[in-house]
Design a protein that fits this description.
The chain is an alpha+beta fold. It is built from 2 helices and 9 strands. The protein has one domain (23-168): Immunoglobulin-like.
């Protein structure tokens, strides 16, 4: 076997277990998912891949927001309930997030990145018992359908669009 064939075969063998553990997550954001419901033409999408329980690679977009974007997050809560912020997706000067959080863009935005335990902030609602750095807890909540993404605006401070994250074992 030549060196190239050996390296290729070794690469496949070593990455197969990682790919097998990858898990797709997705949320479609609309005003109808907000609590209370918001009448808006805005939409958004959050797609990601959980990798080895240690990180989540994601792509997040929003468009058509009627208000000025003030912040976007991942929150812990089941459908039709508001919950604590656990991960910041974008920030503004008036609503700053943790160091390294990208700046929100007006009207439409696209963000990509990798979420790790460092990005998980302590839940503001003590009764939720979520501590900073507990990525495994956030991933477990995603699998249970108890995590959502929302984009806040000046017209809808509680959120203009929202979508519940669902998980699938198909990569």
């Amino acid at each position: 076997m030549n060196k190239l064939a050996f390296v290729t075969a070794l690469s496949v063998v070593l990455t197969a277990p990682i790919a097998a553990r990858a898990e797709r997550i997705r949320a479609t954001l609309t005003g109808y998912e907000e609590v209370p419901v918001v009448s808006t033409v805005a939409t958004g999408e959050f797609v990601g891949m959980i990798r080895d329980e240690q990180s989540i690679d994601y792509h997040f977009t929003y468009t058509g927001l009627q208000g000025m974007v003030t912040q976007a997050h991942i929150h812990a809560a089941q459908p039709n309930v508001n919950g604590s912020i656990v991960i910041w997706l974008c920030q503004t000067a008036t609503n700053p997030g943790p160091v390294g959080t990208p700046t929100c863009t007006a009207g439409s935005g696209t963000f990509t990145g990798t979420i790790t335990a460092v990005n998980v902030v302590a839940g503001a609602m003590a009764s939720q018992q979520l501590a900073a750095g507990e990525l495994a807890e956030v991933i477990a909540a995603m699998r249970a359908g108890a995590v959502y993404v929302n984009v806040h605006t000046d017209l809808s401070p509680g959120g203009e669009i929202r979508g519940q994250i669902s998980a699938s074992s198909r990569p």
